[in-house]
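Late entry, written up from scratch paper. The run itself happened at the end of the previous shift, but nothing got recorded in the book at the time, so transcribing now.
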Amino acid sequence: MTTVEQVFCLKRSDLETLFGTPLPQGGFQGPSLGQVLRLNQVFLPRPEAEGEPRLKQLIPYQLFCCQGRYFVYQRGGGVGEGRLAGRLSVGIGGHINRDDARSNHLSHEGYEAALHREREEELICPSTLSTDFIGWINDDANPVGQVHLGAVHLCQVAHEAEVTIRPHGEDLHAQGWWTVGQIKESAERFERWSLLALECLFPSRSV
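Output as recorded:
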C-alpha cells in the first residue's frame, strides 16, 4: 500500500497576520524564519494541500553562488513537479514532510534537516556550505503559487566543481554557472520562482 506524503502547511490567515494583508507578492525580505515556524502548523496529504489555497505549503528554496555566478539547471520531463518540466532554475526546492517533524511540530532544527535532505537528494556538494536565509517568495498569480510559500536560502560555494547533479536522482541537467545578467537575458526560459528568488538578493533590481 502506497503511503501518501503528508506535507507541512501554514494557514494563510496566520501568515497574513504576520506578513500583512494581503500577502506581499514577489520576492521580498520580511519576517524571520523563526517567526514563521512559531505559527500554527498543519500537516495534510499532499493531494489535498495542492487544492487548498487557504493553506500555504512551505518550500525551502536554495540558491548556490560561486564568485557572483549562480548554479543553473534544467528540469527534464521526469521531474516530480511536471508543470516545471523543461524550465531552467537556480533553486533546489522541495516539500517538508511529517517525517521532518517531531511530535507533529516542526522545529528550526527539523527545518534545517529538511533543507539538507532536499539538497542531498538532488546534488552532490559539501555538507558544510555556508547557508543564509535571505527572504521569501509568494506568487498568488497562478494555482501553483497560491498554495506555496518559498523560504529562500543562499549557499556560498568556494569552487564550482563542488556542486554537481546527483546521478540517478531527479531528472535534472546542469547548465553551468551564470551571472545575473545572463539569467536576465534568458528570463523567459526560467521558472518564475527563480527570478523571484533573485529579487530577494537584489530588491532594487528587476531580474
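The radius of gyration is 16 Å.
(Scratch paper discarded after transcription.)
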